[in-house]
Amino acid sequence: MAKYYFPAIFDPGSDGSEGYTVTFPDLPGCITEGSTLEEAFRMAKDALEGYLYGMEEDGEGIPAPSDPKKLVIPQGAFVSMIEAWTDYIRDEMENKSIKKTLTIPKWLNDAAEAEGINFSQLLQFALKERLGMVKKSEPDTKQ
């Protein structure tokens, strides 16, 4: 599994507003924010996973994370290590459902609906079968 740890700087800013801006010194452009500390941590994990997933997909090398003790941070900010699992993001992206619009004759639609056929499931099964991807334990295509 592709698991990474990178230091993130959580900066509350100095303008008196609520929330935190989160940056990753080793990953230019990987920036997020949260209205609360809890939200900032959640958003940091999400941003890091998405950023690293994109780097992997583009064939870019993932840099080594900096030593958190050596980072220079703004007054009032703090550093925390953030964990990222890009395999989970990859699975989510590869299994993302896509809506397709298709046309079939009305009589065929009526007959299939009368039999309780799940159109999405049947189309997926037919495509897998056509592409030679059918597993022995594929589910029944009726609802």
Automatic annotation (TrEMBL):
InterPro entries: HicB-like, TA_system_antitoxin, TTHA1013/TTHA0281-like. Residues 6-109 form the HicB-like antitoxin of toxin-antitoxin system domain. This is Phage-related protein. SUPFAM superfamilies: TTHA1013/TTHA0281-like.
